[in-house]
């Protein structure tokens, strides 16, 4: 649809950016922090660093927040490391961990930056993983106990809460993310049991948040990407419906409507992945009412029909590269879309399509909590970093987001990935996302100096003009 006039971004639009604890903080075993599954990860793709020092944000947070303030951030989305707060997953609370996030939140508030807190971003406590992780139903209560500590400690200053980052990618791409327990037998069946436990845990925490903090707002934070059929062949359209239902709507339907959608459920039945649902679970799901939807968007997905039988996956992939399911859908590379240096497709128009679809389906306000371009940035001889490719990426996505707003979608914030350079989930330090360069290499930490990139100055203008000035 063409519009004669574009609707402006709202006056209190939450411009900001995101990070996650294990990718940015470092200090993995300092001040009483316990190990998470990310700290204990043993296998890394060749030539890529672990997460132990990352961007050392733990020791640089004041400098980092002051740079965010210089950009004019209205919000900063970060995650809390469960093992900094409760080192063993349950039980004793670590006062030094509580203190760190108190300091971070106070620093943000000093600059009028709204803290947006993700409770859990891939870094399950290692002690809980040893006890079965999300396969163990007791992890539900552990998450509720942890969430209660967060709501108690920070609820006086934090209004926006996100439950679980990209639960759908943990289930579909746990291996690529480095969080799949290698001891799991009948992996997929077990993963959908874990998924169910996470859905219950999330619903309990949403309800708890509403009881404890009536003025707070809380929502889920999956990775949502609209799925296109490869062609207009009816079988391809069905495949796209299948993948939309399994990848996207399963997670949002459960969080918002408290039910499994019919297509996803029939997929679970067909494959033999139906989870054990204990009496009362569906009531818990239905009782929880998120206040908004946060979602991460990188690019749409495209699939074609799969006529094969069996339960094995088709191909290999990561959170942005589709792994097919025999008889259900098969990944297809969209010939109309360019790719980034790491093989991920780029689809700004698909961003508008995804926003429209999510809003029409759920009618809840939306905040974008990730979107961004992973690239290999270069420091020029004069010290500048000219990441015009990143600016172009953002510009195109912001244009499409404004079109979606004009289409009637209620978007109240944009926090792309990432505020500062951090360690990618599986491509190490070289795959950079930040507005702020962190001067380190894979295995040479150098001085971890912070250098604003060209995109830093561009985004500063975008925010100052409330999204009116997108050119550079
Ligand atoms: C999302 C995650 O899947 O994508 C982030 O929430 C991640 O943790 C981001 O870093 C980009 O992915 P990658 O693999 O390039 O780091």
TrEMBL record:
Keywords of the record: Glycosidase, Hydrolase, Plasmid
UniProt-listed GO biological process terms: carbohydrate catabolic process
Positions in coiled-coil regions: none
GO molecular function: beta-glucosidase activity
Gene3D superfamilies (alphabetical): Glycosidases
Statement: the UniProt record of this protein carries the keyword Oxidoreductase: no
Gene Ontology cellular component terms for the protein in this record: cytosol
InterPro entries, A to Z: GH, GH_1_N_CS, Glyco_hydro_1, Glyco_hydro_1_AS
Location of the active site: 370 (nucleophile)
Membership in a protein family: Belongs to the glycosyl hydrolase 1 family.
Protein name: 6-phospho-beta-glucosidase
